[in-house]
Amino acid sequence: MGANIKHIEYKGINIPVIFEKQNSLPTYNLQLVFQNSGFIKDNEKSGLASLSAKLLNEGTKEDGSVKFANKLESQAISLHASNGFETFVIEISSLMDVKDKGLKLLSDLLKSPNYTKDTIDKLKTLQIGSLKRKENDFDYISKIGLKKLLFKNTPLENPSSGTLKSLKSIDIKDIKNFVNSNLILENLIIVAGGDTNFKDLQKDILKIVKLFKSGEKTELKSFSPSNKAKVETLSKKTEQAYIYFGSPFDINPTDENIYIAKVASFILGGSGFGSRLMEEIRVKRGLAYSAYGYISINKTYSNFNGYLQTKLESTDEAKELVSKIVSEFVKEGVTQKELDSAKKFLSGSEPLRTETLSQRLNRAFMLFYKGQDQDYPAQELQQIEGLSLDKLNSYIKSHDEINQLSFSIVRN
To answer: Which residues of 238-258 are buried (b: 16+ CB within 10 A; e: fewer)?
Structure first.
């Protein structure tokens, strides 16, 4: 059946609702998705969005975290807040017969979050402890290093969990301000599904949205990765070299050629065994256990990025090989065999992407969020099936900006 896009008007604001009815199981799922409200809004206090989400997982001020968690657990209700770069999400799921109890607990949480100094101090201590443990996580260090190379002086260069310095500067007032200024009606998108109908869902939503204020909606900014190829090597006591690499790829979610980029990404490094990177780096030369690379396409940024881990003595060889593979990919394109294999896999794996309600709701949301039609996946498969080798290779050749590779390397 699939999801439907509807709207609910509240205080003159049209709130989008992505809804799918499913009768096969007596379940209920409601997600409050706030756009332009993730760690893109941390500003100078990196980790603010992350701490704000964690605080909403600490129960109400009246009950505290343990008592509130027990109330949820006793009814098998899941209530969780999280954030990404662009979005902040509060999600509740339960069986239908305890749905109203779940919504009551959600309402209690939104009315009175656990804004106490002890809670903030505990969360900061846990987050700081996690960051200190990551000081010896060389994979994490290399990954963050690449973000700094590609997106310097933008919110993307900061780790979502913050830094030791920024976390220490965050207090209750900062979290309250973040929640009040970002979790507003103008930013809200509702995603819901389960064994209910839209009329009843609408009543549930109106009980919840009245707990949010109207505010000032701001435009979502976009960021371009650096086109200056850079290499940054950090010396650590390690027995392996950790190599993250990335470069610009000029595209946006509504580009008419996005399906071609998907095929190109799959062949270059996104398909695991059979991809160019895996075949050349692991299969032919044995330089790494795995190697991948893919084109990431978001509303705020798009780029090519990848990763491999290799022996210390083969670090330079592996790095140069990545550059060579990408260069030859742009210059020479792909073979008919590679294109046919990509078409077969992408077509065959499509049914696996929509097996569950959660998968279908997530897809419906992403399509809506990125400005694509709900039937876009079917259109995309048709476009991929009709894609010719000449058109694919011409497209790949037109994106030579992917050659401007930057490398973040951690080695001994």
So the answer is: bebbbbbbbbbbebeeeeeeb
